Amino acid sequence: MMGSNGRSVRLFLVDGKSTGMITAEIMNWTGHVLTGPRAELPRFLARPEVARTGVYLLYGRDPDDPDRTQLYIGESDQVGTRLKQHNQEDRKGYWERTCVITSKDQNITKAHARYLEARLIGIAAKVRRAVLDNGTAPPVVPLPEADCSDMEFFIDQIRLVLPVLGLEFLREAPRPSQRRATAAVPSAQDGPLFELEYKKMDITAQAREIDGDFVVLAGSLAAPRWTSKRGSRTTMPSCTRRCSPAAKSSPMRPQASRVSQRMLPFPARAQRPQQCSAALTTVA
Fold first, then answer.
1. Residue among 200, 203, 205, 204 at smallest CA distance from 251
2. Environment class of residue 135 by beta-carbon count within 10 Å: exposed (0-12), middle (13-18) or buried (19+)?
3. Cβ–Cβ under 8 Å, residues 56 and 120
C-alpha cells in the first residue's frame, strides 16, 4: 500500500449529484474509475470508458444480510458488453451500483485485466469486507516481471481511490499492536481505548477504533450470544447450548471465551445498539 505522503484524488460528479455517476482519477496515474447506479445503466453504458478493456465491480446490499455488501468482480475486453449480459441475470438481484476501472491510455490488455481480476478477487476474499458472488477464484495470470510490477502499482492505486468513493471492499484490515492496551502507553497512531465491563458476569473487553474499524483487542472476553429483552433498550447475555438450564439463573460467568485480535464485521461508525447496560468508557 501507499506511504504517508499526501495524494490528490480528483472526483467529478457527472450528474452534479453524489448519487449519480462519478469519475475518479489520481495525479500521475493512468487509471480511471467510473461508478454509477444500476438504475442509470443505459447512460452508464454510453460512456466511452465502458467500451475499453478493464475490470468491473457489481455491488449492493446482501439480500440475506442487509448490513453486509455483496460483490462481484469481473473483467472484459469490452466491459459494456459484459455489463449488458449481467443485467439479464436473475441472480444479480443485489446489484445496485457499478464500478468500472480502466486505463486512460488504453494500455491495459486482456492479460492485464485477467491479472487484475484474479488479484482483486483474492484481496477481497482476504479482507472479507463483502460477500463475494464469484463462484470461482481464477488463478493469477503469469505476466512478464515488468508487467507484474506495473499491475501491482495499479492495484495500489485502486485500493487508494476506492475508499474515497465509499467502497471499502479492498481496504486492508487494521493491524493494531499485539500488546494488551493497558500494558503500555498507547501509540500516537492508535485511537482511544474503549473498555467494556459487565461485573455481574465478570466480563471485560477492550477495543480501539483504528482506521474507521472497531477492533476488539486480544485477550478480551465475550459472551457466546446476546439476547435483547423485549421493551428494553439494553441486552443481556443468554446461555448457548453448552449451558445447563440451571446455569441461566446462576451467578456464575457464562461460557465466555478468549478472542483473538480481529476486526468486527461492521465499521465503528455504523449505528449499532449497545449490547449491555455496562458503561462504555474511554480510558486515558
1. 200
2. exposed
3. no
Cβ count near 132 (within 10 Å): 15
- Over 60: is that where the pLDDT of 62 sits? yes
The helix or strand, by DSSP H or E, that contains position 115, with its residue range, turns out to be: helix 110-127
Chain segment 109-144, per-residue pLDDT in tens? 999 999 999 999 999 999 999 999 998 889 999 999
Burial class (CB in 10 A: 0-12, 13-18, 19+), 244: exposed
CB-based burial of residue 144 (10 Å sphere; 0-12 exposed, 13-18 middle, 19+ buried)?
Answer: exposed
Read off the pLDDT of residues 171-226 as tens digits, 9 standing for 90 and up: 887 665 544 444 444 555 567 888 888 787 778 888 887 766 777 888 888 777 76
DSSP helix, strand, coil percent of the chain (3-state; round to 5): 25, 30, 45
Which residue shows C-alpha cell 484481496?
123
Q: What residue type is 15 in one-letter code?
A: D
What one-character-per-residue DSSP string does 165-193 give?
A: GT--TTPPPP---SS-GGGSPPPTTS-PE
Indicate the domain borders of the chain. Answer: 9-165, 181-283
